[in-house]
């Protein structure tokens, strides 16, 4: 009987696989002429990924050197999030991050954005770590928000505000 229960337990645990997802909010701020990007990731996924990417033990919650941890996060995000406005790259600045319960919001600002005809987004955060990773991207422009889902098969997408009807 015990072997039957163990067989069912092991079979059931092999079927259970967590779903990996992140959220990226992009907001156009006409006053500052900038795109404000907020990328939310789970802390355990970030810690595992940074440790593997940089071949060192990264403690996201209690880093011995917060500035060094933040520099690793910046390098990783700049490698995996790319935004073009009307076919042109814009200057970007890593603003910082904020830890919440089991996640972290990371903030990037793209400057010199007067208006947006087309916003191209490539977000491959954690695609190198998880086969089932999906990144939900929300873009808010002049009071209207549109969304798209990016994954390994479709790592980039576009927003064209002129085509939006409220």
The helix-strand sequence is: HEEHHEEEEEEEE
Model regions low in confidence, pLDDT < 50 over at least 5 residues:
1-17
Beta content: 35-45%
- How far apart the termini lie comes to 61 Å
Strand count:
10
* Number of helices, where a helix is a run of at least 4 consecutive DSSP H or I residues: 3
Major β-sheet annotation: 6 strands, mixed
Structural class by secondary-structure content: alpha+beta
Q: How does the overall form come out from the CA principal axes?
A: globular
Radius of gyration: 19 Å
Helix amount, in percent? 10-25%
- Strand numbers in spatial order across the main sheet: 5-6-2-1-8-9
**Global mean pLDDT:** 89
Task: Describe this structure as you would to a colleague.
By secondary structure, the protein is an alpha+beta fold. It is 25% helix and 41% strand. The protein is built from three helices and ten strands. The strands form two sheets. The chain has a six-stranded mixed β-sheet. Strands 4-3-7-10 form a four-stranded antiparallel β-sheet. A hairpin with a 2-residue loop joins strand 5 (92-100) and strand 6 (103-111). It is globular, with a radius of gyration of 19 Å. It starts with a helix and ends in a 7-residue tail after the last strand. Mean pLDDT is 89; it is low at 1-17.
């Amino acid at each position: 009987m015990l072997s039957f229960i163990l067989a069912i337990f092991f079979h059931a645990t092999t079927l259970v696989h967590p779903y990996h997802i992140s959220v990226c909010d992009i907001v156009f701020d006409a006053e500052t002429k900038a795109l404000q990007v907020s990328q939310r990731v789970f802390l355990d996924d970030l810690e595992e990924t940074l440790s593997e990417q940089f071949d060192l033990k990264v403690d996201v919650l209690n880093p011995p050197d917060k500035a060094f941890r933040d520099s690793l996060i910046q390098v990783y995000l700049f490698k995996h999030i790319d935004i073009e406005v009307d076919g042109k790259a814009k200057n970007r600045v890593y603003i910082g991050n904020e830890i919440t319960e089991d996640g972290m919001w990371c903030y990037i600002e793209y400057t010199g954005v007067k208006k947006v005809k087309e916003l191209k987004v490539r977000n491959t955060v954690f695609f190198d770590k998880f086969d089932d990773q999906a990144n939900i991207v929300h873009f808010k422009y002049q009071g209207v928000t549109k969304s798209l889902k990016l994954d390994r098969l479709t790592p980039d997408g576009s927003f064209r505000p002129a085509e939006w009807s409220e």
